[in-house]
Design goal:
746 residues, disordered N terminus, 16 helices, 8-stranded mixed beta sheet, 16-stranded antiparallel β-barrel, alpha+beta
């Protein structure tokens, strides 16, 4: 049997009694009143609780009970289990709060299949589909809380053997709301991380938490300032810390989000006033002067909130000082409270609870923890992120258990309750002041998992300038997804402008290309950073001349190609990258024995690098492509033109069998919170050529742009002005990822 995390409470109490008898002055020989902390909710404003705790320690005020709501439960729970104020402050610094509010792993750590999804025009947010019931189901919240759960688990490991929260160094309650009945639920037992998580489950933002037979959400809905909760624990004197946000004025309510924020403030303000009314003359109410300096969602200002919390406590210093103990008695109190004597356990067994249709090997193969290993939260977080990235799970959690004197880790993977299959809308738009426009909308249905190895079958419909209907099956060939097979079929249409040798920038013909056929691809996933694949494509098509020289007639064609390609993707984001690489090299062979009406060989090399300093980012890259044999047909030409792809020109205005592009893009993060916005500039040079002998630096085209960008729920949106060396210019409205434009429609 493992030793307990800290000495038994009866032993600590005995030591405390002896210390009080020997050290305490006669004036304090009587039993002192019990003091409880009521730490209110307020999002990031709850960082002020840390500052209050620091002042209470300076004033030697004993804390006998703590009740917390939402962020008050986070700070209060960590302090109650024995973490020092320095430990909590360090945790606030260490936690990546932007990642906390994202259920997905960092993009650079995601599997390559998921990275490829970012290259489509599909919107990331998507409802689920439950095939068995033939219905579409919305997700229960914007954030399921996967990352938050892991962070709370990491910092509450010292309490892993504690079930009754009265057995913590400081008895504790996490206050939540029963979303069914609206009742206050004061959680005093169970798993500490889960209790804290329930207390801060803001409805519709974080998924509710099931505890027993109750469905719990943020405690702020019922009791944002838990005075009654801490009083019921036995507190004679309550120190209440109210960090609720200010209400908006009439002029500050201008949109739906501001209205929702105001409604939430009114709800919490009303029950906070009710709790304040229950304070007694000996109680102390601290209201840190946060004002509008720290908003509920500004978690990058937690330490600023902590400093303001110290100010708030200083304003009540006279009232607080009377509650302080003499140094010797306070030392004895802290000794009686004890500190966790905690070491990460050595694991005797690892158990998987797989509540999904996937094979157990897809989970066990990604968990590196083995019997005999010491539990490492960093490794657990990394491994669980790889399981979550299978995109089938609502949550993947771990807990430490004791069974028959052995310590084990149980990992529970829960399948999405709203359906693992999904529907996705899609939208892409390019419009320039010169009248050129490009617009597509679409809808995709992805069935997953098709089998226990997590195969996916996606069918997509696209309407607009380039309509199409495609279907594809992606099949991992092993549990680790080292090898894969992909099958695809469909019909697609796109437009092609052909430049003649002496036509300058004026196209001699414009074609509408319609292709139908299929492909098969197999290859090797290279960890999460790259992929090597061999593809065979076979399709037929019509090239219908819409306008132009009659010397360029309409025609039909057949394509049979072998393509060998290496792709690399370590970018942290495809919307507005700040770090990483994106690149690829491809070779294409077309022959009549493969089904092609033309014989040719093509190759392409591209590379993009993103780097960041502070709020500034710089992207630099190039693309080279050309024919290395045969006569390349127009439908296989490379294409350039448009925003960030020779700005000043219309979208895909230039085409030819040889192409080159080099560009530098600067981005400045404007520091907005609700929607990240950027200002930027670009410089590009490149061209297309009809013949290899004509390639040269003297006829390179130049383009540049100034733009504003926003990372919206629909995808990245740009408003920019581009100008070319010819004097042509364009005002762009662009929805999509312009630096991902392939030189060729593969």
């Amino acid at each position: 049997m493992h030793s307990p995390l800290w000495p038994p409470r009866w032993a600590l109490r005995l030591c405390a009694v002896l210390a009080l008898v020997l050290l305490a002055p006669a004036a304090f020989a009587g039993e002192r009143p019990k003091i409880g902390l009521a730490l209110g909710g307020g999002g990031a404003r709850g960082g002020a609780h840390l500052g209050v705790l620091k002042r209470l320690e300076e004033l030697r005020i004993p804390v006998d009970y703590i009740a917390g709501t939402s962020m008050g439960a986070v700070v209060g729970g960590l302090y109650a289990q024995g973490l020092s104020t320095d430990d909590i402050e360090q945790a606030m610094k260490d936690i990546d709060w932007s990642a906390i509010f994202n259920d997905k792993p960092p993009r650079e750590e995601r599997r390559f299949r998921r990275k490829q999804d970012d290259r489509t025009f599909l919107i990331d947010r998507r409802p689920g589909v439950i095939e068995a019931e033939r219905r579409v189901e919305l997700v229960p919240a914007l954030i399921q809380g996967q990352s938050l759960e892991l962070a709370l688990r990491r910092y509450t490991l010292p309490a892993l053997e504690v079930y009754d929260f009265d057995e913590l160094p400081i008895p504790f309650r996490a206050v939540a709301t029963d979303v069914v009945t609206g009742e206050v639920v004061s959680l005093g037992e169970g798993d500490l991380a889960t209790a804290i998580r329930a207390s801060m489950a803001v409805p519709a933002v974080f998924a509710p938490v099931e505890v027993g037979d109750r469905l719990l959400v943020d405690g702020g809905l019922a009791m944002n300032l838990p005075v009654s909760a801490v009083r019921s624990m036995g507190a004679d004197i309550v120190i209440a810390v109210d960090v609720g946000g200010p209400r908006r004025t009439r002029e500050e309510i201008g949109n739906i989000l501001q209205m929702l924020d105001q409604v939430a403030s009114l709800v919490t303000a009303r029950n906070t006033e009710d709790e304040i009314a229950k304070l007694k003359p000996r109680d102390v109410l601290i209201v840190p002067p946060l004002g509008r300096e720290v908003g509920a969602s500004q978690f990058d200002r937690l330490l600023q909130a902590a400093a303001i919390g110290e100010q708030g406590a200083d304003e009540k210093r006279a009232e607080l000082a009377r509650l302080g103990l003499p140094p010797a008695q306070y030392t004895a109190h802290r000794a009686a409270r004890g500190q966790p004597d905690f070491a990460l356990p050595v694991v005797d067994f690892v158990e998987i609870e797989n509540n999904s249709r996937l094979d157990d090997a897809l989970i066990t193969g990604r968990i590196t923890l083995k019997p005999g290993d010491r539990l490492d939260p960093n490794i657990m977080d990394r491994d669980i992120a790889q399981v979550v990235d299978q995109d089938n799970f609502e949550s993947v959690r771990y807990r430490v258990v004791e069974r028959e004197g052995k310590t084990g880790v149980v990992i529970t993977a829960q399948e999405k309750s709203w359906g693992t299959s999904s529907l996705q809308g899609g939208l892409e738009l390019s419009s320039s002041g010169g009248g050129d426009s490009f617009f597509n909308i679409g809808l995709a249905y992805t069935m997953a998992p098709v089998n226990r190895l997590n195969a996916e079958w996606r069918t997509a419909l696209r309407l607009g300038e380039e309509p199409g209907l495609t279907t594809s099956l992606y099949q991992p060939l092993d549990a680790a997804e080292r090898w894969y097979l992909e099958l695809g079929a469909g019909v697609v249409s796109n437009n092609l402008r052909v430049l003649g040798p002496d036509s300058g920038d004026t196209p001699v013909a414009e074609y509408q290309l319609v292709r139908w056929g299929g492909l098969v691809e197999g290859g090797r996933n290279l960890g999460n950073w790259g992929r090597l694949g061999l593809r065979y494509s076979r399709y037929a098509g019509d090239a219908d001349r819409q306008v132009g020289d009659p010397g360029f007639p309409s025609y039909t064609f057949d394509v049979g190609e072998l393509q060998l390609g290496l792709s690399v993707d370590t970018l942290d984001s495809l919307n507005f990258p700040r770090s990483g690489w994106l690149g690829g090299v491809y070779g294409v062979l077309a022959r009549d024995w493969l089904g092609s009406s033309d014989d040719y060989e093509l190759a392409s090399l591209s590379l993009l690098r993103a780097g960041t300093w502070g709020r500034d980012s710089l992207l630099g890259g190039f693309s080279l492509a050309g024919s290395f044999g045969g006569d390349t047909p127009p439908q296989s030409y490379f294409r350039l033109g448009g925003f960030l792809n020779l700005s000043g020109y219309n979208q895909r205005d230039l085409s030819g069998p040889y192409a080159a592009l080099a560009r530098t893009i600067y981005l400045r993060d404007l520091g907005t919170t609700l929607v990240r916005t950027y200002a930027g500039a670009s410089f590009e040079l490149g061209n297309v050529w009809p013949d290899r002998d004509e390639i040269g630096f003297d006829d390179l085209r130049f383009g540049g742009s100034l733009f504003l960008g926003a990372d919206t729920i629909l995808g990245p949106v740009y408003l920019g002005y581009g100008i070319a060396d010819t004097g042509d210019s364009a005002l762009y409205l662009f929805l999509g990822r312009p630096w991902l434009g392939s030189l060729r429609e593969w």
